[in-house]
Write a structure and sequence with these properties.
Helices cover 7% and strands 29% of the residues. It contains two helices and 16 strands. It has helices at 97-104, 224-233; strands spanning 20-25, 29-31, 37-40, 48-54, 61-68, 77-81, 107-111, 122-127, 133-137, 143-146, 156-160, 165-171, 185-186, 189-190, 212-215, 246-249. It has a seven-stranded antiparallel beta sheet with strand order 2-3-12-5-8-9-10, with no helix packed on it. Strands 1-4-11-6-7 form a five-stranded antiparallel beta sheet, covered by helices on one side. The chain has a two-stranded antiparallel sheet with strand order 13-14. A hairpin with a 5-residue loop joins strand 2 and strand 3.
Length: 270
Amino acid sequence: MGAQICSQADAEAPGETLRFHAEALGAQVRLDAERSTALRRATFHDGIVFSQRPVRPGERVALRVLCHERGWCGGLRLGFTRLDPARVPARSLPPFVCPDLEWQSPTWAAVLPDGCARTGDVVRFWVTRRGRLFAQVNAGPRLLLRKDVPMGAPLWAVMDVYGTTKAIELLDPTASTFPTTMPHVLGGEILPEPGATAGEECVICFHRAANTCFVPCGHKHFCSSCAWRVFGDTAKCPMCRWEIEAVALARGRPALGTGDGLLVSVADWT
């Protein structure tokens, strides 16, 4: 991949809002229309994504973990690379940032500690002018992940939606707070908030249409606004009290009985 290394700041202007690069994607990644959300569709690897422009020293890259998937080990990887994603040949990305992309190119990434970033958490990461890679989860302490990142050339942010991490969303790092009602995206669809017709109302607000599903229990009686509020408040389904691991787009008319799709997996909704 040496031919794709960028030694001059010839990419997009640093002031542009960060988005995921539209074409340099792992084989399992799907982006939403705004290129702010990345979903890994299957398996536990092939989830590499890049920022669409270089990141300045000290500039925070902020993302939210939208969805976790049980059954895998390890989670989100993040870091920086000299690879210009606009010059990465199609289908040339390896399955993993660590160690594959690091072996093949000037890339410096690290794994967040296990259990450090859960669904709904906001992760910020940055590299200092001294080449130190830091991360911070929510309002927690700064985590020094690496201290050997060479400076002096453009660096793009690189993230690996790996293992238990199923989907992430890029955020505005300058915001003092982030909304708790999140527009969750699966398969490029932002959850709509239409008014409900008779028999399809959200069982919490009785106004908006029930259009979301709690994972893994499968209950789908809630609009996305109420679903995310429940997820943020208690993370327990009001119908069965199971722990909520993710909020997904529901399919089909909600049924109010007790056997409506229990024990579904995240893969059923992606």
